[in-house]
């Protein structure tokens, strides 16, 4: 795929996906979404890549939905699909994509609002520049939160705070976002990408199966109330890890024969 609205590059073991559609403030259209989706799948298929950084050009990471964007035509049904329908498609959503992806680190030095902020909620680590703004303008604009916001935001910041943020259409500074757990690090604007790359390189250097299983365990167990269930999940993951290690040892021994 030839990219028109994003840039894709690799630096060592890290793939960098940069939104660059500044004439529309990097708002998500079906075209930009498909390019981002393709870039993440490309990084996942590249054995040399161990982690992904998601970042942007311009003062705005993503202004949410591009309401002027042309819908995508479903080749099977002929239906017109807008960006919300595409990115929230059952079993093929943005959330599903990131869950099966290699670790993703967001490097945000500008404003993330609406769909531009909900798309970051399933990202593994969010790093904000000192002047970054995090905005939940759904209700004020006559819309509602989407892309899993009503499930994922409470997990990050707590139920009461999440409800407050969305119902009052709040804007948060980077420091405020860090204090409530929406983002995990705040650095000078000019250092956001460097910080994200350093974190991504650390993630890429970790054993990949252990990284994948650990991320999966946190997703499954974070809200699991049944003690036996979350202990079983961890036991199953350890068994998978040990079996993989045994298989690798046997393969190595066979290769030496």
Description:
The protein has 257 residues and is α/β, with parallel strands linked by helices. It folds into two domains: 6-205, 2-enoyl-CoA Hydratase, Chain A, domain 1 (Alpha-Beta Complex); 208-256. The chain contains ten helices and twelve strands. It has helices at 30-45, 83-87, 94-99, 115-118, 149-157, 159-167, 174-179, 192-205, 208-221, 227-256, and strands at residues 6-11, 14-19, 51-56, 60-62, 72-73, 80-81, 104-108, 111-113, 125-129, 133-135, 171-173, 185-187. The protein has a six-stranded mixed sheet, sandwiched between helices. Helix 1 links the parallel strand 2 and strand 3. Helix 9 (208-221) runs antiparallel to helix 10 (227-256). The longest helix is centred in the C-terminal third of the chain and has 30 residues, at 227-256. The mean pLDDT is 94.
